[in-house]
Prior knowledge:
mainly beta; Immunoglobulin-like; 3 domains; six-stranded mixed beta sheet; 7 helices; 32 strands; globular; metal-binding; CuRO_2_LCC; apoplast
Amino acid sequence: MEGFDNIFAINHRLSLFFLGLLLLLASALSLANAETHNHDFVIQATPVKRLCKTQNSITVNGMFPGPTLEVNNGDTLVVNVVNKAQYNVTIHWHGVRQMRTGWADGPEFVTQCPIRPGGSYTYKFTIQGQEGTLWWHAHSSWLRATVYGALIVHPKEGSPYPFSKQPKRETAILLGEWWNANPIDVVREATRTGGAPNVSDAYTVNGQPGDLYNCSSQDTVIVPIDSGETNLLRVVNSALNQPLFFTVANHKFTVVGADASYVKPFTTSVLMLGPGQTTDVLISGDQTPSRYYMAARAYQSAQNAPFDNTTTTAILEYKSSACAAKNCSSNKPIMPPLPAYNDTATVTTFTTSFKSADKTLVPTDIDESLFFTIGLGLNPCPSNFNKSSQCQGPNGTRFTASMNNVSFVLPSNFSLLQAHHQRIQGVFTTDFPANPPRKFDYTGNVSRSLFQPVAGTKLYNLKYGSRVQIVLQDTSIVTPENHPIHLHGYDFYIIAQGFGNYNPRADPSKFNLVDPPLRNTVAVPVNGWAVIRFVADNPGVWLMHCHLDVHITWGLATAFLVENGVGQLQSIESPPEDLPLC
């Protein structure tokens, strides 16, 4: 048997080597038509008026949201970021694979030290083999509340979309959250008190709250459509802490893509996106020419937790001559029905409808079978803290969060990738547990003894080419919740999901190994589980975290250290000369 194992291992390494050569050849062929796009991002404070109030918000180039970047599959982006704001900042290119360019990924103290006020850093990377909607955002504290924008990847020059109808227009729809306060102050106050942060005061579409909020009607976003047109809407949930439903009155969507991967088209009247997720939909101008509200509001799965229950709107407006003759622009828009805030059934129907449109390469022989519990926790009030002002969690505690009972702590003197690359000791360990330290009834009544996780900077080590399966299990510690889990540097196949505790004997029968969706962010069901698979073919240090920013603030994260493989094509590039210092 040992001989067979050795032969199998050699064949696996050879297949990875030849795959690397094929990728290199494909890359070289695509370079003939590829372009390099240069941009300058100036991070600065800008007066922004929303909800009757003007405040200085951190923006890119004075824009809120920031600029939309458009490239073709195979193009290279070079973005010089100059920090003229008062806070440290980094920019993350959400969903970009960053093959061998981990130094450009962006999470603060993970792949780089922050860009200090007055400093700069140039991100350079190629987007290869991805088409659809991605986005970029700050990855420092809560700056992404206002520092974000769309990143659109079109097919290669001259190639059509793989849709039955080519869209006449394309519109990016960025859903966001707005605070009548400085978001940095909001999270700092929550960190000081140990309690939950104040919820947002509004949701936004492309930075505007819409007609249902005070002082907002004049700037409500108008999305044009013509009778008979088929248009492409690129929907991004850029909100900081809230999964969102999205719908348009009297219109249906045909879903064609998600997270820059094409899916088998399906029809729905409502979308649900967790923070970080994108969904591409076709919408047809097949209704009576008029004005129709596009509306978004919260999907709230956590029990007894405060949330922003307001509704943001934009307007889908017909531009046809028939509408002009009837002066449609003066019509009151038609309002769509929206699901109940806790409508998990609608969420399940939607999320389980995704199937990959492309040929899938789902790993079948698994090298690393991992089981990660995810959820909140409560730390007791330290003896040197003021219980009334610094321990405002339930029963005089402080909120925390964890994966496998480890609450992730970012370093402050080095980035994780820098420490790995330079072999700096004492910054992190590689003993993140492959399974929960204790088995328990994850979605049942959990013992209070399990509410307090261990803090640490623990990574999980993966050999290059490892075929990885992760079961992500929600827990009812404090409260069960739908968690959008994002993995940097990778796409992964979502091969199954369900409710209750994952059953390793019965649930593998539900695995879809034929056409599972390829995503970079998975919405783990409330009181449930999801199973993902990927091949560790991108060396570096890659963060995996809940994209509810309050949860990553509390420690709901870990990181994978993926070793270099054989030769240059399987190794991370050298760090750029202008990489910021800590």
